[in-house]
């Protein structure tokens, strides 16, 4: 099974990247094929080319795993592609939300839909 990791890249700290890489290592040791953007997407490309690479990897994936950060524009882009492609989503980290409408609540509803 192929998994795409949706996460922050541009402002990611080394600590955050280590956390992501540990999660990916766990998946890969279980036999999953994983696309981790800061590792597997050419970050030296233009923004458009980065989005194209991620779009292609998302479409080729069986599901997406999400480390949600509402401040990450790339996260929202990748979520939009995933939603349009009707991908199964698994939330690894989410932000707290209250009873009102929010993106964090929507992705929880999306995950529960499956």
Task: Give a brief description.
Helices cover 50% and strands 17% of the residues. The protein has helices at residues 14-29, 37-40, 47-60, 73-84, 103-113, and strands at residues 2-6, 33-35, 63-67, 88-93. Helix 4 links the parallel strand 3 (63-67) and strand 4.
Task: Give an account of the 3D structure.
It is a single chain. The protein is globular, with a radius of gyration of 14 Å. It is built from 5 helices and 4 strands; from the N terminus they run βαβααβαβα. It has a 4-stranded parallel sheet, with helices on both faces. Strand 1, helix 1 and strand 2 form a beta-alpha-beta unit. 26% of the residues are buried. It is of the alpha/beta class and 114 residues long. The protein has one domain: Rossmann fold. Helix 3 runs parallel beside helix 4.
List the defining traits of the structure above.
single chain; 114 residues; alpha/beta; Rossmann fold; 5 helices; 50% helix; 17% strand; globular
SSE layout:
Layout: E1 2-6, H1 14-29, E2 33-35, H2 37-40, H3 47-60, E3 63-67, H4 73-84, E4 88-93, H5 103-113
Parallel strand pairs: 1-2, 1-3, 3-4
Helix pairs in contact: 3-4
CATH topology: Rossmann fold
Largest sheet: 4 strands, parallel
Q: Quickly give the structural class.
A: alpha/beta
CATH class: Alpha Beta
Q: Which architecture per CATH?
A: 3-Layer(aba) Sandwich
Per DSSP, the total helix count is: 5
Following the backbone from N to C, one meets helices and strands in this order, namely EHEHHEHEH
- Spatial order of the strands forming the largest sheet: 2-1-3-4
**Rg from alpha-carbon coordinates:** 14 Å
Name the shape in a single word: globular
């Amino acid at each position: 099974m192929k998994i795409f990791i949706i996460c922050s890249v541009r402002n990611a700290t080394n600590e955050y990247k280590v956390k992501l890489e540990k999660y990916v290592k766990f998946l890969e040791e279980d036999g999953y094929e994983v696309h981790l953007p800061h590792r597997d997407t050419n970050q030296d490309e233009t923004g458009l080319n980065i989005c194209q690479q991620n779009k292609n990897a998302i479409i080729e994936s069986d599901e997406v795993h999400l480390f949600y950060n509402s401040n990450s524009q790339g996260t929202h882009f990748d979520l939009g592609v995933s939603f349009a492609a009707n991908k199964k989503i698994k939330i690894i980290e989410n932000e707290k939300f209250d009873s009102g409408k929010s993106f964090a609540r929507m992705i929880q509803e999306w995950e529960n839909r499956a």
